[in-house]
Amino acid sequence: MAKTEKIKLSMLGLPVIQNLDDFSNLTHISKYTIYQLSYHSSYYYRTYTISKKSGKKRVISQPSKKMKGLQSWVLVNILNKLQVSGSCKGFRKGSSILDNALPHQGANTILNIDLKDFFPSISSKRVFNLYKSLGYNNLISTVLTNICTYENTLPQGGPCSPMLSNLVTWTLDLRIQGYVGKRGVNYTRYADDLSFSGLHPSKVLHIIPMINKIINDENFDLNYSKTRVASSARAKIVTGLVINEDSVGIGKKRYKLLRSKIHHLTLSSEQKNTSLLNHVKGWISYLYSVDKKRYKKVQNYITELSNKHPKTLVSQLLVPAK
């Protein structure tokens, strides 16, 4: 490894790894195991499918315990130390779908674009080039790439895949932000969801051809079936949250549905329905993270119902006094 590469890695705060001995010493994993995980990585995955909302199947490639352990080391000690673009809001510690939606608050028009087959579109070559750009030599870049990819793409289920996707799309984000920013259009990306907003519908619609060109230039494809434009006549939604003039939240429809489920916990027929209880708890936790205003309303509603029906499951939703 050249001296300049060592300096580059040190400046980035990354571990200097020149060979498998260095890698083994840092990870406390034997060279043999690292070699096996890298050059025979396909043996260390279990592949299965899950159903999407659309009815299609999503392929999940789940790494073995050993592989996941080494991938987690790479994630913590290398990938998480790197900065992603300012437009990127997904797969970041301390960032949520609320952070992705807030920049679009008050917009008259919102455009949502989805990248087709996001993880499978990111090849091993792009991951290798990323590690090389950080300062790692060919050997270590190859080993790191083999550890983090499966069948030449990012595996849906690998710990490193989300952060690697953010790093690989750095140029995509910068090119898009550079183009739309000059035109008074806001841009954020949450994984494969790209959101644009502005005060003038014509300006937002005008960017679509160039955005599509940039996406194609960066070796991604636009999922036309998920492209949505919302103006004053339609609900404005960004990553599942409803955007209004002065607020961002889950919206009236989902709020009423949640209240209905909470009320069901007071019914005598539902007193053994722990599945519903846990489902509602999950929704309340989600509400707390994205819609504080309605969260407070829900807590007041729970208190009201608990006073009326103290011996029902709804009382288990009460937040203990601090």
From TrEMBL:
<dbReference type="InterPro" id="IPR000123">
    <property type="entry name" value="Reverse_transcriptase_msDNA"/>
</dbReference>
<dbReference type="GO" id="GO:0003964">
    <property type="term" value="F:RNA-directed DNA polymerase activity"/>
</dbReference>
<feature type="domain" description="Reverse transcriptase">
    <location>
        <begin position="31"/>
        <end position="243"/>
    </location>
</feature>
<keyword id="KW-0808">Transferase</keyword>
<protein>
    <recommendedName>
        <fullName>RNA-directed DNA polymerase</fullName>
        <ecNumber>2.7.7.49</ecNumber>
    </recommendedName>
</protein>
<dbReference type="InterPro" id="IPR051083">
    <property type="entry name" value="GrpII_Intron_Splice-Mob/Def"/>
</dbReference>
<keyword id="KW-0479">Metal-binding</keyword>
<comment type="similarity">
    <text>Belongs to the bacterial reverse transcriptase family.</text>
</comment>
<keyword id="KW-0460">Magnesium</keyword>
<keyword id="KW-0548">Nucleotidyltransferase</keyword>
<keyword id="KW-0051">Antiviral defense</keyword>
<dbReference type="InterPro" id="IPR043502">
    <property type="entry name" value="DNA/RNA_pol_sf"/>
</dbReference>
<dbReference type="InterPro" id="IPR000477">
    <property type="entry name" value="RT_dom"/>
</dbReference>
<keyword id="KW-0695">RNA-directed DNA polymerase</keyword>
<dbReference type="Pfam" id="PF00078">
    <property type="entry name" value="RVT_1"/>
</dbReference>
